[in-house]
Amino acid sequence: MTYCVGLLLNAGLVLLSDTRTNAGLDNISTYRKMFTFEEPGERVIVMMTAGNLSVTQTTIARLTEDINNADATHDTSIMKAENMLDVATMVGEMLSRVTAETKMRMDRMNQSASASMIVAGQRKGGRMRLFLIYPEGNFIEATDDTPYLQIGEHKYGKPILDRVISADTPLEDARKAVLLSMDSTLRSNLSVGMPLDMAVIEADALRITEQRRIEANDEQFAAMSAAWSQALRDAFTQIK
Questions:
Q1: Domain boundaries, the chain
Q2: What angle do CA 198, 93, 59 make, to 5 degrees?
Q3: Sorted alphabetically, which InterPro entries does this protein's record hold (predicted)?
Q4: Segments in the chain forming alpha helices (H)
Protein backbone atom coordinates (compact mmCIF):
# COMPACT_ATOMS: atom_id res chain seq x y z
CA MET A 1 0.00 0.00 0.00
CA THR A 2 1.09 3.61 0.20
CA TYR A 3 0.22 7.09 1.39
CA CYS A 4 0.44 10.22 -0.73
CA VAL A 5 -0.87 13.68 0.12
CA GLY A 6 -1.05 16.95 -1.79
CA LEU A 7 -1.95 20.43 -0.56
CA LEU A 8 -3.23 23.28 -2.76
CA LEU A 9 -2.57 26.58 -0.99
CA ASN A 10 -2.54 30.22 -1.98
CA ALA A 11 1.22 30.14 -1.43
CA GLY A 12 1.85 27.03 -3.52
CA LEU A 13 1.64 23.25 -3.70
CA VAL A 14 3.11 20.81 -1.18
CA LEU A 15 3.31 17.11 -2.05
CA LEU A 16 4.57 14.10 -0.10
CA SER A 17 4.69 10.36 -0.78
CA ASP A 18 6.13 7.26 0.83
CA THR A 19 7.98 4.58 -1.16
CA ARG A 20 6.90 1.23 0.31
CA THR A 21 5.36 -1.42 -1.90
CA ASN A 22 4.43 -4.80 -0.51
CA ALA A 23 3.02 -7.97 -2.02
CA GLY A 24 2.79 -9.84 1.28
CA LEU A 25 4.68 -9.72 4.57
CA ASP A 26 7.80 -11.30 3.06
CA ASN A 27 7.91 -9.25 -0.15
CA ILE A 28 8.45 -5.59 0.72
CA SER A 29 10.23 -3.27 -1.71
CA THR A 30 10.95 0.41 -2.24
CA TYR A 31 9.67 2.17 -5.36
CA ARG A 32 9.43 5.85 -6.16
CA LYS A 33 5.80 7.01 -6.26
CA MET A 34 6.41 10.68 -7.03
CA PHE A 35 7.22 11.70 -10.61
CA THR A 36 8.08 15.23 -11.73
CA PHE A 37 7.89 16.89 -15.13
CA GLU A 38 8.91 20.48 -15.69
CA GLU A 39 9.87 23.05 -18.25
CA PRO A 40 10.98 25.88 -15.94
CA GLY A 41 9.14 29.09 -16.64
CA GLU A 42 6.55 27.31 -18.78
CA ARG A 43 4.96 24.50 -16.72
CA VAL A 44 5.51 22.08 -13.87
CA ILE A 45 3.63 18.85 -13.17
CA VAL A 46 3.96 16.38 -10.29
CA MET A 47 2.26 12.99 -10.15
CA MET A 48 1.95 10.61 -7.21
CA THR A 49 0.70 7.04 -7.49
CA ALA A 50 -0.99 4.44 -5.29
CA GLY A 51 -2.26 0.94 -5.94
CA ASN A 52 -1.19 -1.80 -8.33
CA LEU A 53 2.45 -1.18 -9.21
CA SER A 54 2.16 -2.66 -12.70
CA VAL A 55 -0.68 -0.28 -13.52
CA THR A 56 1.03 2.83 -12.16
CA GLN A 57 4.43 2.08 -13.72
CA THR A 58 2.88 1.36 -17.11
CA THR A 59 0.79 4.53 -16.94
CA ILE A 60 3.80 6.71 -16.11
CA ALA A 61 5.91 4.97 -18.79
CA ARG A 62 3.33 5.57 -21.51
CA LEU A 63 2.81 9.20 -20.51
CA THR A 64 6.59 9.69 -20.64
CA GLU A 65 6.78 8.07 -24.08
CA ASP A 66 4.13 10.47 -25.32
CA ILE A 67 6.12 13.41 -23.95
CA ASN A 68 9.26 12.24 -25.78
CA ASN A 69 7.47 11.53 -29.05
CA ALA A 70 8.77 13.85 -31.75
CA ASP A 71 5.24 14.17 -33.11
CA ALA A 72 3.68 15.05 -29.76
CA THR A 73 0.86 17.59 -29.78
CA HIS A 74 -1.27 19.36 -27.19
CA ASP A 75 -3.71 16.44 -27.51
CA THR A 76 -1.15 13.71 -26.78
CA SER A 77 1.49 15.14 -24.42
CA ILE A 78 0.95 16.47 -20.91
CA MET A 79 3.87 18.84 -21.52
CA LYS A 80 2.05 20.44 -24.44
CA ALA A 81 -1.49 20.41 -23.03
CA GLU A 82 -3.19 23.79 -23.03
CA ASN A 83 -4.11 23.70 -19.32
CA MET A 84 -3.98 21.52 -16.20
CA LEU A 85 -7.54 20.33 -16.75
CA ASP A 86 -6.41 18.80 -20.04
CA VAL A 87 -3.44 17.24 -18.24
CA ALA A 88 -5.78 15.60 -15.71
CA THR A 89 -7.99 14.36 -18.54
CA MET A 90 -5.03 12.81 -20.37
CA VAL A 91 -3.72 11.13 -17.23
CA GLY A 92 -7.20 9.84 -16.40
CA GLU A 93 -7.69 8.38 -19.88
CA MET A 94 -4.30 6.66 -19.78
CA LEU A 95 -4.87 5.30 -16.27
CA SER A 96 -8.29 3.97 -17.26
CA ARG A 97 -6.90 2.32 -20.38
CA VAL A 98 -4.00 0.65 -18.57
CA THR A 99 -6.27 -0.44 -15.70
CA ALA A 100 -8.68 -2.11 -18.12
CA GLU A 101 -5.85 -3.91 -19.94
CA THR A 102 -4.27 -5.14 -16.71
CA LYS A 103 -7.56 -6.12 -15.10
CA MET A 104 -8.27 -8.68 -17.82
CA ARG A 105 -5.11 -10.56 -16.82
CA MET A 106 -5.30 -9.99 -13.07
CA ASP A 107 -8.89 -11.21 -12.76
CA ARG A 108 -7.76 -14.71 -13.67
CA MET A 109 -5.56 -14.74 -10.56
CA ASN A 110 -8.06 -12.95 -8.29
CA GLN A 111 -5.70 -9.99 -7.88
CA SER A 112 -6.58 -6.31 -7.90
CA ALA A 113 -5.61 -4.04 -10.78
CA SER A 114 -6.84 -0.87 -9.08
CA ALA A 115 -4.69 2.27 -8.93
CA SER A 116 -5.19 5.98 -8.36
CA MET A 117 -3.09 9.08 -8.83
CA ILE A 118 -2.68 12.65 -7.65
CA VAL A 119 -1.78 15.18 -10.34
CA ALA A 120 -0.67 18.70 -9.44
CA GLY A 121 0.93 21.60 -11.22
CA GLN A 122 0.65 24.87 -13.07
CA ARG A 123 0.99 26.11 -16.64
CA LYS A 124 2.16 29.58 -17.56
CA GLY A 125 -0.85 31.86 -17.62
CA GLY A 126 -2.97 29.44 -15.63
CA ARG A 127 -3.59 28.78 -11.95
CA MET A 128 -2.24 26.02 -9.76
CA ARG A 129 -4.48 22.95 -9.69
CA LEU A 130 -4.59 19.65 -7.81
CA PHE A 131 -6.54 16.56 -8.95
CA LEU A 132 -7.24 13.06 -7.66
CA ILE A 133 -7.56 10.61 -10.55
CA TYR A 134 -9.65 7.48 -9.94
CA PRO A 135 -9.00 4.07 -11.60
CA GLU A 136 -11.89 4.64 -13.98
CA GLY A 137 -10.25 7.83 -15.25
CA ASN A 138 -12.66 10.33 -13.68
CA PHE A 139 -11.30 12.82 -11.19
CA ILE A 140 -12.04 15.40 -8.53
CA GLU A 141 -10.26 18.69 -7.85
CA ALA A 142 -9.06 20.35 -4.66
CA THR A 143 -10.83 23.60 -3.74
CA ASP A 144 -10.55 26.34 -1.13
CA ASP A 145 -13.04 24.38 0.99
CA THR A 146 -11.05 21.15 0.65
CA PRO A 147 -7.48 22.22 -0.12
CA TYR A 148 -5.88 18.78 0.15
CA LEU A 149 -6.20 15.37 -1.50
CA GLN A 150 -4.94 11.95 -0.38
CA ILE A 151 -4.53 8.49 -1.89
CA GLY A 152 -3.65 5.18 -0.28
CA GLU A 153 -3.80 4.74 3.50
CA HIS A 154 -5.24 8.18 4.12
CA LYS A 155 -7.30 7.76 7.29
CA TYR A 156 -4.46 7.99 9.83
CA GLY A 157 -3.04 11.22 8.44
CA LYS A 158 -6.33 12.97 7.78
CA PRO A 159 -7.20 14.39 11.25
CA ILE A 160 -4.27 16.81 11.46
CA LEU A 161 -4.98 18.10 7.94
CA ASP A 162 -8.62 18.68 8.82
CA ARG A 163 -7.61 20.70 11.87
CA VAL A 164 -4.76 22.86 10.61
CA ILE A 165 -4.87 23.19 6.82
CA SER A 166 -6.68 25.97 4.97
CA ALA A 167 -5.99 27.74 1.69
CA ASP A 168 -4.18 30.48 3.63
CA THR A 169 -1.75 28.12 5.40
CA PRO A 170 1.88 29.27 4.86
CA LEU A 171 4.21 26.86 3.07
CA GLU A 172 6.38 26.33 6.15
CA ASP A 173 3.37 25.20 8.19
CA ALA A 174 2.17 23.11 5.26
CA ARG A 175 5.48 21.23 5.10
CA LYS A 176 5.18 20.48 8.80
CA ALA A 177 1.55 19.36 8.44
CA VAL A 178 2.19 16.86 5.64
CA LEU A 179 5.19 15.42 7.46
CA LEU A 180 3.21 14.96 10.67
CA SER A 181 0.34 13.50 8.65
CA MET A 182 2.81 10.98 7.22
CA ASP A 183 4.33 10.32 10.65
CA SER A 184 0.89 9.39 12.02
CA THR A 185 0.40 7.01 9.09
CA LEU A 186 3.83 5.42 9.50
CA ARG A 187 3.11 4.69 13.15
CA SER A 188 -0.27 3.12 12.48
CA ASN A 189 0.23 1.16 9.25
CA LEU A 190 3.17 -1.07 8.36
CA SER A 191 2.27 -0.99 4.66
CA VAL A 192 3.52 2.62 4.53
CA GLY A 193 7.25 3.17 4.90
CA MET A 194 10.36 5.28 4.46
CA PRO A 195 12.04 6.87 2.61
CA LEU A 196 9.74 9.77 1.76
CA ASP A 197 9.72 12.08 -1.26
CA MET A 198 8.62 15.70 -0.86
CA ALA A 199 8.16 18.44 -3.46
CA VAL A 200 7.17 22.09 -3.02
CA ILE A 201 6.05 24.37 -5.86
CA GLU A 202 5.72 28.03 -4.95
CA ALA A 203 2.82 29.84 -6.59
CA ASP A 204 3.66 31.09 -10.11
CA ALA A 205 7.25 29.81 -9.88
CA LEU A 206 6.49 27.33 -12.70
CA ARG A 207 9.19 25.02 -11.39
CA ILE A 208 9.84 22.78 -8.41
CA THR A 209 11.24 25.10 -5.77
CA GLU A 210 12.10 22.39 -3.24
CA GLN A 211 12.55 18.64 -3.63
CA ARG A 212 14.07 16.25 -1.13
CA ARG A 213 14.17 12.62 -0.10
CA ILE A 214 13.79 11.91 3.60
CA GLU A 215 15.57 8.72 4.65
CA ALA A 216 14.74 6.57 7.68
CA ASN A 217 17.69 8.04 9.63
CA ASP A 218 16.78 11.68 8.94
CA GLU A 219 17.45 13.51 12.21
CA GLN A 220 15.15 16.44 11.46
CA PHE A 221 12.19 14.17 10.74
CA ALA A 222 12.91 12.05 13.84
CA ALA A 223 13.03 15.18 16.02
CA MET A 224 9.72 16.43 14.58
CA SER A 225 8.10 13.04 15.21
CA ALA A 226 9.33 12.96 18.80
CA ALA A 227 8.19 16.53 19.46
CA TRP A 228 4.73 15.77 18.05
CA SER A 229 4.39 12.66 20.21
CA GLN A 230 5.37 14.63 23.31
CA ALA A 231 2.98 17.46 22.43
CA LEU A 232 0.10 14.99 22.09
CA ARG A 233 0.95 13.36 25.42
CA ASP A 234 1.12 16.76 27.13
CA ALA A 235 -2.19 17.84 25.63
CA PHE A 236 -3.83 14.58 26.69
CA THR A 237 -2.77 14.94 30.30
CA GLN A 238 -3.98 18.56 30.45
CA ILE A 239 -7.53 17.73 29.36
CA LYS A 240 -9.86 17.43 32.35
A1: 3-238
A2: 50
A3: Ntn_hydrolases_N, Proteasome_sua/b, UCP009120_prtse
A4: 53-68, 84-106, 158-164, 171-188, 219-238
Structure letter (DSSP) for residue 41: T
Q: What is the pLDDT of residues 54-106, one digit of tens each?
A: 999 999 999 999 999 999 999 999 999 999 999 999 999 999 999 999 987 77
- Rounded to whole angstroms, how far apart are CA atoms 182 and 205? 26
CA–CA gap between residue 179 and residue 163 (Å, rounded): 15
Are residues 183 and 104 in contact, defined by beta-carbon separation less than 8 angstroms?
Answer: no
Q: Which among 33, 38, 40, 39 has a CA at the least distance from the CA of 18?
A: 33
Is this structure's pTM higher than 0.90?
yes
Distance CA 46, CA 119 (A): 6
Q: How many residues does the chain have?
A: 240
Alpha carbon separation from 188 to 25, 154, 182, 191 (Å, rounded)? 16, 11, 10, 9
Which architecture characterizes domain 3-238 according to CATH? 4-Layer Sandwich (3.60)
Q: Do 151 and 145 form a contact (C-beta atoms < 8 A)? A: no
